[in-house]
Amino acid sequence: MNSPLKSDRDRSIMLWVVAVGFFMQTLDSTIVNTALPAMARSLGESPLRMQSVIIAYSLTMAVIIPASGWLADRFGTRTIFQTAIVLFVAGSVLCAYSSQLAWLVAARVIQGVGGAMLLPVGRLAVLRTFPRDQYLRALSFVAIPGMVGPLIGPTLGGWLTQALSWHWIFLINVPVGLAGGIATLRYMPNSKLAGLGGFDLGGYVLLATAMVTLSFSLDGLAELGFQHATVLMLLIGSMAALTAYVLHAGRKSQPLFPLKLFHIHSFSVGLLGNLFARIGNGAMPFLIPLTLQLSLGYSPLDAGLMMLPVTAAGMLSKRIATNLIERHGYRRVLVANTFTVGLAMASFALISPAQPLWLLLLQLAVFGAVNSVQFTAMNTVTLKDLGSAGASSGNSMLSMVQMLSMSLAVTSAGALLATFQQVFGAHGLTGVLPAFHATFVCVGLITSASAWIFLQLSPEVRRHAGEPAQPGDEVLH
């Protein structure tokens, strides 16, 4: 199964290829946020109706991630990684040359299919190439660019949009992807897994159906303009597909995600907490740049720069999360911090043209700090008790839920904005600030309410001595 490369130099180059691929995938999850108003003007759309550009990417990734590992085992890591790069670059080019919103959304789906396979397949290639005693160092190296990408995305997207045009937030992927594709052919072994069992296609279709119909039902209230009966039927369809998967997985010997994972207390609570808490805080990278540009008159670059306090505070608070968990345990930290994150989100309802800049910067920094603690604690408590047998399935399920919640977060924020525009009688972009204020309060309440989920954690669930802290994902997701 392992396919060691000929030299340390070859392994190092392959590591760089995987790291850059992960960087591109995570960068494109946030780089469009500050460019949405400019993209809307170019395409003749309302900036408040552009959430499908984000949703298409994150929802596609959520749908494809569960299949990526099996595809790599069946067809080889190099083949699938190379395919992922080709799809990602092709999607990026199509995004840049889209003249209509529908074409842009379709191109983002193609980009998302490629992006969904870059990280899991790249990580698998690393595990099968490096000796066991080098796993930790190799995977840590790969993880760093993936954490940096989303942090610089809003600022880079704002600068490219202002200095050149929004098309360049996608075109920058082309030369990097071409170089990565060539290096993949030369330096990545095409390792496969002998004796591979069949793929749980039935379970995969049921889960994918549940995720897509749920997202469409929520987006149908805002951007798609569905009738209420259609939305209700989609919601019922989503619940039916999820129920069918549970019944399917219960009788299948090798389901896509075994139900026995949910017998692990910390995993089941952590996964549900991840899903619902992120529906609130995942909306913020979408809402904040829009508010700054549409209501306060910020340029794309200035809106991107205003996200730097979130990034800086989030990075500084990483070590604080570990100390807090060691001292107070997961339950106390997650309950208190989830509630605090919700309050920090709701505080953005104070944004106004008359608000002092220092107060806005303080709000952003506080939000970044508590949000970073939240991600670190949620990820760690979810994965800490899985053991080696359930680590692969559990980690894949967590990755899927993270991307699904990002899609649902932007979908929910868009629906709330559309609703409050009607409530406050805002026409176009005139008087839209009250709608943003009400949306910030709602997403804050959603997040604070999810603290109840973490209240179900056993008080004895603590970080064990010597247990490595799981790397928190990007500050803004």
UniProtKB/TrEMBL annotation:
Chain ranges passing through the membrane: 12-32, 52-72, 79-99, 105-126, 138-160, 166-187, 199-218, 224-247, 259-277, 297-317, 329-351, 357-377, 398-420, 432-455
UniProt topology in membrane: Multi-pass membrane protein
The alphabetical list of record keywords is: Cell membrane, Membrane, Transmembrane, Transmembrane helix, Transport
| Compartments, as annotated in UniProt | Cell membrane
Q: Which residues form the Major facilitator superfamily (MFS) profile domain?
A: 14-462
Q: Which Pfam families match?
A: MFS_1 (PF07690)
Name used for this protein in its record: MFS transporter
Species this chain originates from: Cupriavidus malaysiensis
